[in-house]
Amino acid sequence: MAATASPAAGGMDGKPRTSPKSVKFLFGGLAGLSAGLLRQATYTTTRLGIYTVLFERLTGADGTPPGFLLKALIGMTAGATGAFVGTPAEVALIRMTADGRLPPDQRRGYKNVFNALIRIAREEGIPTLWRGCIPTMARAVVVNAAQLASYSQSKQFLLDSGYFSDNILCHFCASMISGLVTTAASMPVDIAKTRIQNMRMIDGKPEYKNGLDVLVKVVRYEGFFSLWKGFTPYYARLGPHTVLTFIFLEQMNKAYKRLFLSG
């Protein structure tokens, strides 16, 4: 008996057809990708650039690097500034990734991140681009104080030990330490941020008053170490990201000094 082609498997001519859902997923993902790339281009370059400039400015004339607390303060400044600059792209990213889950009549249908930014400014006002800026900056202050300061301190410690030279191996080890410290410091902040975003109304009142209330209730009802639940997968994501960030940063700094400052 001859087999007949299923309509779900292809068209009337037997050739495979691409599912509309697949096309929607592909182009929806690409639209979200443009916003994610712009966010990294604004947030990451700003925070790393400001940290590098301030770190060099505050290094002593004899080459003595700033102390750990000053490094942390520089990291906070860089993180807050980077978060402020990157908030419009993050607003666009959140909206574009959530668009596919909305009912058809509520979807915004942004074509790309630039279309999203223009429409948000035109339809809702320019201040809307910085909606949620304060909690975003608060999280960035914690994350960057931990990440940037711990990397610089770890790198300095490894170089002072005499077992490392200023090369990729040293940068890799310092980055892994930095990723560990950043994970430990940022997880409680992320838990508070996520639970506030997803909180329910109980008897007409919000479940949590603020971020501090979230942390107090988590410790009281779930235990202190619940603040670091899921530590291993979080570090598995953040560790490689931190390693690549600082290795590329170090190599670009060396290339810049060699090409433009050596003469």
Automatic annotation (TrEMBL):
It holds the Pfam family Mito_carr. Transmembrane segments: none annotated. It is found in: Membrane. Solcar repeats lie at residues 66-157, 166-255. GO terms for biological process: lipid transport. It comes from the Eukaryota. GO terms for molecular function: alpha-ketoglutarate transmembrane transporter activity; antiporter activity. It is a multi-pass membrane protein. Keywords: Antiport, Lipid transport, Membrane, Repeat, Transmembrane, Transmembrane helix, Transport. It catalyses: maleate(in) + 2-oxoglutarate(out) = maleate(out) + 2-oxoglutarate(in); malonate(in) + 2-oxoglutarate(out) = malonate(out) + 2-oxoglutarate(in); oxaloacetate(in) + 2-oxoglutarate(out) = oxaloacetate(out) + 2-oxoglutarate(in); succinate(in) + 2-oxoglutarate(out) = succinate(out) + 2-oxoglutarate(in). One of its GO terms (cellular component) is membrane. Interacts with SMIM26. PANTHER family: MITOCHONDRIAL DICARBOXYLATE CARRIER-RELATED (PTHR45618). Catalyzes the transport of 2-oxoglutarate (alpha-oxoglutarate) across the inner mitochondrial membrane in an electroneutral exchange for malate. Can also exchange 2-oxoglutarate for other dicarboxylic acids such as malonate, succinate, maleate and oxaloacetate, although with lower affinity. Contributes to several metabolic processes, including the malate-aspartate shuttle, the oxoglutarate/isocitrate shuttle, in gluconeogenesis from lactate, and in nitrogen metabolism. Maintains mitochondrial fusion and fission events, and the organization and morphology of cristae. Belongs to the mitochondrial carrier (TC 2.A.29) family. This is Mitochondrial 2-oxoglutarate/malate carrier protein. It comes from Suricata suricatta (Meerkat).
